[in-house]
Description:
The structure holds two protein chains of two kinds.
Chain A: E1 14-17, H1 25-31, E2 38-40, H2 43-47, H3 50-60, E3 67-69, H4 78-90, E4 96-100, H5 102-117, E5 127-128, E6 139-143, E7 155-160, E8 165-170, E9 178-181, H6 183-186, H7 191-210, H8 216-238, H9 243-263, H10 267-279, H11 283-298, H12 303-313, H13 316-321, H14 327-345, H15 362-370, H16 384-394
Helix pairs in contact in A: 4-5, 7-8, 7-9, 7-11, 8-9, 8-14, 10-11, 10-15, 11-14, 11-16, 12-14, 15-16
Chain B: H1 3-27, H2 29-36, E1 43-47, E2 54-60, E3 63-67, E4 75-79, H3 82-89, H4 95-100, E5 104-107, H5 110-127, H6 130-136, H7 147-156
Parallel strand pairs in B: 1-4
Antiparallel strand pairs in B: 1-2, 2-3, 4-5
Amino acid sequence: MFVPPYFEFVNSAKLLAGEYALENIPSEMRLLGSSRPMILSDSTLEKIGTVSVLIQALSKGGMKPSAVYTDIPLDSSIEKVNEISAIYRENNADGIIAIGGGSVIDTAKGLKMLISQGGRDIMNYVGSEMLGRGQSVPFTAIPTTSGTGSEATGVAVIKDGERKVKLEFISSFLLPDIAVLDVRALESMPARITALTGLDALTHAIEAYSCLQKNPISQCYALSAIKLIVENLEEAIRKPKDKKARISMAIASYIAGAAFSNSMVGIVHAIGHSVGGVCSVAHGEAMTILLPVCMRYNLGFADDDYADLLLYLSDAETYASTEKTRRAEKAVEVVENFISRIKAAAPIATNLSERGVRRSDFEQIAIRAMNDGALIVNPRSADKDDILKILEKAF
Amino acid sequence: MKTYIKTITCKLILRVLYRALKVLAYKDSRIRHEFGSFREGFTIRITLSEQGEGVIMRKERGKLVMISEVEGEDLELRFKSIDSAFLVFTGMMGISRAYAEHRISVKGDIGDTMTLVRIIDIAEAYLFPRIMTRRILRSVPMKERSTISVYRMVLLGF
């Protein structure tokens, strides 16, 4: 196993996972000093009753939210964070409970940043590892998808609506204090979203295992995540009410999130973010399309890591019967076959043209990808021409 | 090695790096292109440690100039310790690796940071011998001019 000359690892969120996890939130929030938290969510989750399930669970523990805000859009924005911070202060809230996907949780991180720093505009905190702890703002994150891993990361991606760019905020102080994985928050996920978010989590784990910031702890996390995804994703798609498969995928997503929050992600995400930004392709779909192509691009530069992954992506027999020098390539083939099986179970795209990306978009995608922070930690460097070739292969 | 020796060494090499960037922003097409993406008046601070010693550069009328003070720079790369800065400025570690190992804090846009990192990677290919750059860079950029001519312009100004 690779031991870098120096590395850092942080995963400070307390995890509550499994039956009646939601009901334990009031007790945990009080221990952190919050009795009037503000709930953040989106309108869909409010409509289908997920927010009500949370409010009922809080009420059983004698906790009433000081405010409930459910108008968070798919892409979190700086303007939205600034708006919510005013509501938080008006209602004298003393903590945050975010229930939703990556956008809701990232918005909550932005809110935590503003309140803890006592500021009015989060633009002042753009950057990496510059943010101090600030005032304590107890923060619980409850994911309703199993893919972003945002409940386990110290990263928030928030759109600057004025400049039309996504800004990254990176700090261990953005990590939630509590992450809650409860099947009731996850069971509304349709098959397609289950598939795409699951493959997003797989991408997190594979990139975390092989990127330059990898370390023995993040690699352990990544391997566990991969095993859980391979064993449970198809089941979670085909039998959405299967509680074991659902919670296993949520755990996998959390673990993969913790892994990539420390190891970072690489070229799949660098290009995927740009494909999403330029052509509005869903993040999970961009990951699904680009993962095998980018793994092939990295062959020769991440072979030892990919060879290790073969055991977790397949089984002991496949690993043992594959010649040592062929294991990395075999791992890529196994990923391709796995994605094909998922495609048979849920309607997902496996190439860019299926999602309306045009060759004329490639130039803009490549330019944006070059400026993505994920590219810097990929095991193989890539320039614009390399990215254009990857896009052509993924087309 | 004593901290003050490391500090003096880093300050000296940072000055050389600044002058190299100033020269290469004209003489290397890739750096010229990258530098062009910064808006006029864009300020960059590179700080050697938490104690705040470093340089501040600004793009003025298309050129890179050093300034003594600025309020609210657009981008700051701050090494967490002088030892980390020493590893980078003496060619023992690439700037990408230093970022990956959390040895640098960044204030400002990550996209601008990536542009600066690419610029420094290319500059390092000129300033350090290939035996070092092969070890610290994931791929060594081709040089458009000889190292001797760049050092001549950096040190002698012609």
